[in-house]
Design a protein that fits this description.
This protein has 253 residues and is α/β, with parallel strands linked by helices. The protein folds into two domains: 6-17 and 100-250, 3-Layer(aba) Sandwich (Rossmann fold); 19-95, Putative phosphatase, domain 2 (DNA polymerase, domain 1), CATH 1.10.150. It has helices at 18-33, 42-48, 54-65, 75-95, 105-115, 127-138, 163-172, 186-194, 244-251, and strands at residues 6-9, 118-122, 148-150, 179-183, 199-202, 217-219, 231-233. The chain is globular. The structure holds xylulose-1,5-bisphosphate and magnesium ion. The site of xylulose-1,5-bisphosphate has 18 residues, from helix 1 and helix 4.
Length: 253
């Protein structure tokens, strides 16, 4: 039976609820700054999350809702500039300290570190966003706890393609069945599963209705001693929080 060597964490929606009050707000601030009358409401943004990646999401929205809109600059460059402004606003929101980690995230990361289980990140978002989130929530040296931070444009195709997970496996010289991926969305689950990695889902309000067929366990959060998780699908073996014992048992599923 394979033994657990690494936990691979998604970021947005998994480590923290960054979408609704972070990314969405940052997009809207960038739109206003660029004198666009675009505004993404909370429900609108839920739909737009089907498109992974901020630049891809802006491009999709322009094509769908404003197909005749043509900026002065080349469209691709214009999207990249607008997205750079969005990243600036997003990092400012994180630096304001308004977005905490989800229940159980810090506990599980610390348990893994103490036990010598390796850590990695596999995300669609921009690398600098990950660094600021980790520094603000886990402390200034915490990015170094993660052996690989695979993010954004470091791979050619974003989730639901498996590229970002292949990148992590290759960089860590690990087989997929030695790892557990932690994801919050259908797109993330598809990416990890296509790379052959057993995947635990910790869902949130934006992803509650997603199809999680194929996940080894679906919970509403990772749980704390005084805040047990609810198992939505799969068998948690009487566990009430996600720890290494449960993670190891899930690899044999
Ligand atoms: C989340 C995403 C990201 C963010 C925006 O992916 O889809 O695109 O919404 O980030 P994951 P950028 O859950 O895999 O991290 O604007 O920096 O692309
Ligand atoms: Mg996610």
């Amino acid at each position: 039976m394979p033994s657990l060597q690494a936990l691979i964490f998604d970021v947005d929606g998994t480590l923290a609820d960054t979408e609704r009050h972070g990314h969405r707000v940052a997009f809207n601030r960038a739109f206003a700054e660029a004198n666009l009358d675009w505004n993404w409401s909370e429900p609108d943004y839920g739909e737009l999350l089907e498109i992974a990646g901020g630049k891809e999401r802006i491009q999709f929205y322009r094509n769908r809702d404003y197909p005749t809109f043509q900026p002065d600059a080349d469209l691709k460059d214009w999207v990249a500039d607008l997205h750079r402004a969005k990243t600036r606003h997003y990092k400012q929101l994180l630096q304001d300290g308004i977005i905490p980690l989800r229940p159980g995230v810090e506990r599980l990361i610390r348990e893994a570190r103490d036990a010598g289980v390796r850590l990695a990140i596999a995300t669609t978002t921009t690398p600098e966003n990950v660094i600021v989130l980790l520094e603000m929530t886990l402390g200034p040296d915490s990015p170094s706890w993660f052996e690989v931070i695979a993010a954004g444009d470091m791979v050619p195709v974003k989730k639901p393609a498996p590229d970002v997970y292949h990148y992590v496996l290759q960089a860590m010289h690990l087989a997929p069945d030695e790892c557990l991926a932690l994801e919050d969305s259908y797109q993330g689950l598809q990416a990890a599963m296509q790379a052959g990695i057993p995947t635990l889902i910790t869902l949130n309000d934006y992803t509650r209705q997603h199809d999680f067929t194929g996940a080894v366990l679906v919970v509403d959060h990772l749980g704390e001693p005084d805040l047990p998780f609810q198992a939505i699908a799969g068998y948690p073996n009487h566990a009430t929080l996600v720890n290494l014992e449960l993670a190891r048992s899930l690899l044999s599923k």
